[in-house]
Amino acid sequence: MFFDEYPDFYASSRTAASPVRLGLRHHAIIESNRDVLAGARVLDLASHDGRWSFAALKAGAAHVTGLEARGPLVDNANRLFARYGVPEDSYRFVRGDLFRLLAEQRFDADVVLCLGFVYHTLRYGELFHAIMAAGPRYCILDTRVEQSEEPIIRVLTNRTGAQGHAASDDVSVGALALAGYPSVPALELMLGVYDFELEEQFDWQGLLASLPRRLPAVRGYATGQRVTLRCRSRRR
């Protein structure tokens, strides 16, 4: 497992940091996309503790920029990158509200990582417009989805104080933020508006069927409640 060589990432976050889960997600998110990550400038949205920014660099990315709202997670990312000797000129982490940063600053990228964030917001137009504006060839999405053949979104709320939920932003109220589980057809519809097309959906069922036992840590992927998508820009 990739992160066994960098075990500090197992303790740098309270969110979904089990070795088995991280290892299998690394296979789906990073290993299966090495061809597009090689030499790429990567923009990592809601970069958390930097785990996927780090993995992208190890897969050959030229530079990563991570945007993250929670200060302690940004601190952990910078600490771990220094701990593991990552060259300082190959990464940058920016703390702040994701949507405000995307609206106020320009980010140029070859690949955008949007992992574990789509289902913590309903601000899809702003999100996908900002991804398009960064000019990437590819966007890699990993998200919880509503299982439906129709383009629908299940609306729910997040408690902003929870590390694994939406962070407080300009449109949250008190401790609550609106969020949603989009179906894959809904994602395809929305992405299409911003000139992206779904190129590949990672075969989680095939990967998990090759393992000797069921793994509760990745149950969402096993049941199709969570997916990993590789999306290609029609503009590049």
How far apart the termini lie comes to: 33 Å
Assign an overall shape. Answer: globular
Total domain units: 1
Kindly report the name of the CATH homologous superfamily.
Vaccinia Virus protein VP39
The CATH topology comes to: Rossmann fold
Number of strands: 9
Features:
236 residues; alpha/beta; Rossmann fold; seven-stranded mixed beta sheet; two-stranded antiparallel ribbon; 9 helices; 31% helix; 24% strand
Task: Describe the secondary-structure layout.
Blueprint: H1 19-29, H2 34-37, E1 41-45, H3 51-58, E2 63-68, H4 71-83, E3 91-95, H5 98-104, E4 111-115, H6 124-133, E5 138-144, E6 153-159, E7 176-182, H7 184-193, E8 196-201, H8 204-209, H9 219-222, E9 226-233
Parallel strand pairs: 1-2, 1-4, 2-3, 4-5
Antiparallel strand pairs: 5-9, 6-7, 8-9
Provide a brief overview of the structure.
The protein has 236 residues and is an alpha/beta fold. Helix content is 31%, strand content 24%. α6 (124-133) links the parallel β4 and β5 (138-144).
What does this structure look like?
- The protein is α/β, with parallel strands linked by helices and 236 residues long.
- It has a single domain, classed as Vaccinia Virus protein VP39 (Rossmann fold).
- The protein contains nine helices and nine strands.
- The protein has helices at 19-29, 34-37, 51-58, 71-83, 98-104, 124-133, 184-193, 204-209, 219-222; strands at 41-45, 63-68, 91-95, 111-115, 138-144, 153-159, 176-182, 196-201, 226-233.
- Strands 3-2-1-4-5-9-8 form a seven-stranded mixed beta sheet, with helices on both faces. Strands 6-7 form a two-stranded antiparallel sheet.
- Helix 3 (51-58) links the parallel strand 1 (41-45) and strand 2.
